[in-house]
Amino acid sequence: MYKEFEHNLRHNIKCEFMKEAVLAEHCWYRIGGPADFLVFPRDILQLKKLLKTCRELSVPYYVIGSGANLLIHDSGFRGVIIKLTGSFEEIALEANIVSAGAGTELQELIRFCEKRELAGMAYLAGIPGTLGGALTMNAGTDKGVIGDIVKEVSVITSAGKVENYESNQINFSYRSVPQLQGKLICFCQLALTSGNKQEIREIRLKQLQIRKEKQPLNYPSCGSVFKRPPGNFAGKLIEEAGLKGLRYGDAQISEKHAGFIVNLGSAKAAEVKYLMDKVQEVVFSRFGIQLEPEVKLLGFQES
C-alpha cells in the first residue's frame, strides 16, 4: 500500500514529502513520534490528487497546521500527515476583504492587517497556529472570536469536492464549528473594517502582554488543555482541586496557570495524557464537572 502511495507522490501528485518524519519537530508541544509520511501540498490540484490517492489506497490521513493545539502519541501516526504550504500560505487584499490560505500563520495575518490599518484581528494576537487551525476551533478571547469576522470559508471534503460556506451558513460556537468538522479548510475570506494603525497596534501589544503575564510561555505547551466549562474556568477548577504544579515525568501542570500542562524538557505524550486523565478524575470527583479536552489527540486509541 505505502509503496504504491509513495510512487503516486513522486510521479503523479509530484508533491514534496518526508518519510518517517518526527512529528515532535512539527508541533508546539515538541512531543510525538514519527509519521509514515509528512506531505506538503502547495496548491488545490496537488491536494485533490493527494486526497484521491489516500481514499483509493485506504491510507489514513490527518491535517495539521503548526501543531499548536495538538498532542501526538509517542509512537506517532501510522499514515499521512498533511501540511498545507505554497498557495495555502498566501494573503491577498481587496477593499477591506482579506483572502488567505489555511496554512497562513495567524500572527503573520494579524501583522498584515495592522500594516494596512485593518481592524478586527488584533485581539487574536498571541494565539498560536495557522488560520485553518483557528477556524477549526473558532479561536478567540473574551474580546471576540475569529468567527466574528469570517465572510466565507472554502473547504474540500474527503471525497475531493470543493465547497464554499458563507458566514450565515456556519455556526461558530465555543471552540467548535460543526459545519466544518471532517472537512479540510483551504481558504478563507475575512471582512475587516478600516481603523487607526496606532490603536490596532496598541490592542495587539496589550493582548501579547496579557498572555505574557498569565501564561507559561517559557515552556512548550498546547495552550489551554481543557475547554472552559459553562460558568467557570478550567484553570480555576484545577487549581482549587489542588493540582497546580503537579508533575509526572517531565510533564507538569503549570505553576503559573493551571489550565496549561507544560513540557519541562523531554516530556512524553503518555505523561501529558496521565496528567489530563488525573485532572478530569479529580475535578469531577471534587466538583461534579467533566472537563472536556480542547487539545486534539493524534495517534491515541480514542482519537
Largest sheet: 5 strands, antiparallel
**Total count of domains:** 3
Which shape, going by the Cα principal axes? globular
Q: Please give the share of residues in helix.
A: 25-40%
CATH architecture of the largest domain: 2-Layer Sandwich
- Tally of strands: 18
Strand content: 25-35%
Q: What is the CATH class name of the largest domain?
A: Alpha Beta
In the predicted model, the low-confidence regions spanning at least 5 consecutive residues are none
Terminal Cα separation, in Å? Answer: 23 Å
The strand order across the widest sheet is: 6-7-13-11-12
> Structural class per helix/strand content?
alpha+beta
CATH topology of the largest domain: Uridine Diphospho-n-acetylenolpyruvylglucosamine Reductase, domain 3
Helices and strands, with pairings:
Blueprint: H1 2-13, E1 16-22, E2 34-40, H2 44-57, E3 61-64, E4 70-72, E5 77-83, E6 91-94, E7 97-101, H3 106-115, E8 118-119, H4 131-136, E9 140-141, E10 144-145, E11 150-156, E12 162-166, E13 184-191, E14 193-194, H5 197-214, H6 234-240, E15 247-248, E16 251-253, E17 261-263, H7 269-287, E18 296-298
Parallel strand pairs: 2-5, 3-5, 4-18
Antiparallel strand pairs: 1-2, 6-7, 7-13, 8-14, 9-10, 11-12, 11-13, 15-16, 16-17
Helix pairs in contact: 1-2
